[in-house]
């Protein structure tokens, strides 16, 4: 039994010695790491800048795609804005304007206002809206 106790004590002493060496080695590494912080920062900055550059490139590609799509949508919408789908006006409006001497061509705003002077405000707005839809006035 004494032999077992001696063996345990020796093993504990050996383990304590190893732990002391490990502790001193860790302390040396901590001091060394604190003395040269630039190396760790440079590595992390490199990783962060590479990720940021990758993200920036992705966003630039998405922006270019969205700008191209926007240009296509504007190009597709431009003809319909210049030439509305409805190119005719109601017959009653055309007859009323014809009685006042306003023809099929572009309408002079002053002549239109003179022709519509007998109508109520709501009726004038309705007629002008119809003319805008028909493309008779700009």
Q: What can you tell me about this protein's structure?
A:
The protein has helices at 2-35, 37-82, 91-99, 109-115, 121-134. Helix content is 80%, strand content 0%. The model has no long low-confidence stretch (mean pLDDT 78). The chain has 3 domains: 1-35; 45-83; 91-134, no CATH class. It has 5 helices and no strands. The chain is an all-alpha fold.
Give short descriptive properties of this protein.
3 domains; 138 residues; mainly alpha
Total helical elements: 5
Helix and strand sequence? HHHHH
N- and C-termini, Cα separation: 113 Å
Shape: rod-shaped
Instruction: Give the overall average pLDDT.
Output: 78
For the record, the count of structural domains works out to: 3
Strand count, sense and barrel status of the largest sheet are:
none
Class derived from helix and strand content: mainly alpha
- Spans of at least 5 consecutive residues whose pLDDT stays below 50 are none
Work out the helicity level: over 70%
Give Rg in angstroms.
43 Å
Percentage of residues in strands: under 5%
How many distinct beta strands?
Answer: 0
């Amino acid at each position: 039994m004494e032999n077992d106790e001696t063996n345990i004590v020796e093993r504990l002493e050996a383990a304590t010695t190893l732990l002391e060496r490990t502790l001193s080695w860790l302390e040396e590494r901590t001091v060394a790491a604190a003395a040269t912080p630039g190396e760790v920062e440079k590595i992390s900055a490199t990783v962060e800048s590479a990720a940021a550059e990758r993200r920036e490139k992705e966003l630039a590609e998405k922006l270019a795609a969205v700008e191209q799509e926007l240009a296509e949508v504007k190009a597709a919408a431009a003809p319909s804005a210049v030439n509305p789908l409805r190119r005719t006006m109601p017959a009653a409006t055309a007859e009323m304007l014809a009685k006042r001497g306003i023809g099929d061509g572009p309408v002079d705003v002053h002549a239109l206002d003179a022709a519509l002077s007998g109508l109520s405000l709501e009726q004038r707005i309705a007629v002008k809206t119809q003319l805008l839809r028909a493309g008779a006035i700009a």
